[in-house]
Amino acid sequence: MRVLVLYVDRDGDIKAQGFDTPVLGRDEVLRLAIRYILANPDDSDANAIFAAVKIHDRLVAEHGSDNVNVAVVSGSPDPALADIAVLRELEQVLTQYDADVIYFVSDGPSDEAAVAAIQTKRPVVSVYRVVVKQARGVEETVTLFRYYLNKAIKEPEYRRYTVGVPAFLAFVALLGTAFNTELVRYILNMLLLFISFFITLYGFGIYDFLRDLLKKYEITFILTLVSLFIIVVYLAMLILGERWMPYYILLVASAVPFLSYMVEGYLATGRLRYGGVVGGAATFFFFYFIMPVILERRGLVETLTAVGLFAASIAVVVVVVQVLRRVRRR
């Protein structure tokens, strides 16, 4: 297996500094790294190029010099053209060294956006991100902060989040204050509540778990996040003694992700995901039968009746699924 260690400068900083790319071969890449770091000692691209050379040497010691090579390619400052420019230079490299797989090296997430485009040419077996470790004083930290703040505000790929989203939220808040509109303030509060809920899921790793579980089903992933939010808000309202959200919304929120999972799975594979049927039925019947009993604190007879209905409903669903499977086999 022939491996190409590839450093990708997606935004074209290397070419902007007057250095020609693509560059192929250990000696040529090392020479580029030295020249570039002498011209730009505070740029992380140079460190990443050195890291690519180091990875190349480590792979050579394991697989042999004939099976490993290293290269540097550049893109463009224009995000719409960056991946096309990277692919153009990668094709030039592959004509000289026909690699089977690519070991991708980058200095940040903006460069890693090119991975999807590169995989159209060769499989990417690994992604290595170079993080520059630095110890700085207060003045240097302020300078670094100003540099990244300027980058976040001026570059289009970042400013939509650093400027656009906060400005939109401030606009909605001021709009509600100016016109004394309760609806506007309510919408803003719910939006901020959802954002905080989303950040909570991300912080505790629930977001990553759901993303890995539903990575092939994007619509189901989004609907699952929204449904979890609705369920959590409804339960919080019950704890606080509020009941302004209709109960049927909770029922719909509990079933929609499973319905979406079945639909997306069927459209993608042509097969019905029976796990979605069982999971959706179980969740729906729990909120429909068990939840009211718990909330209204009914007696033992009512509780056992609800549990029995719940178990019977699940049994019916399982039987129906088994019958459908046998019919499909025939």
Fold topology:
Layout: E1 3-9, H1 13-16, E2 23-24, H2 26-39, H3 44-63, E3 68-74, H4 79-96, E4 101-106, H5 109-112, H6 115-118, E5 124-129, H7 138-154, H8 156-179, H9 182-203, H10 206-213, H11 218-240, H12 247-269, H13 274-296, H14 300-329
Helix pairs in contact: 2-3, 7-8, 8-9, 11-12, 12-13, 13-14
Written description of the protein model:
- The chain is an alpha/beta fold and 330 residues long.
- Among the domains are: 3-129, no CATH class; 135-180, no CATH class.
- 71% of the residues lie in helices and 8% in strands.
- The chain is built from 14 helices and five strands.
- The chain has helices at residues 13-16, 26-39, 44-63, 79-96, 109-112, 115-118, 138-154, 156-179, 182-203, 206-213, 218-240, 247-269, 274-296, 300-329; strands at residues 3-9, 23-24, 68-74, 101-106, 124-129.
- It has a five-stranded mixed beta sheet with strand order 2-3-1-4-5, sandwiched between helices.
- Helix 7 packs across helix 8, helix 11 (218-240) runs antiparallel to helix 12 (247-269) and helix 12 (247-269) runs antiparallel to helix 13.
- It is flat and about 75 Å long.
- The chain starts with a strand and ends with a helix.
Count up the helices: 14
The number of strands is: 5
Q: What structural category characterises the helix and strand content?
A: alpha/beta
Radius of gyration: 28 Å
Shape: flat
The percentage helix is over 70%
Q: Strands of the largest sheet, in order across it? A: 2-3-1-4-5
Q: What's the rounded overall pLDDT mean?
A: 75
What is the chain-wise order of helices and strands?
A: EHEHHEHEHHEHHHHHHHH
Low-confidence spans: pLDDT under 50, at least 5 residues?
Answer: 135-139
Strand content: 5-15%
Largest sheet: 5 strands, mixed
Q: Could you give the distance between the termini? A: 45 Å
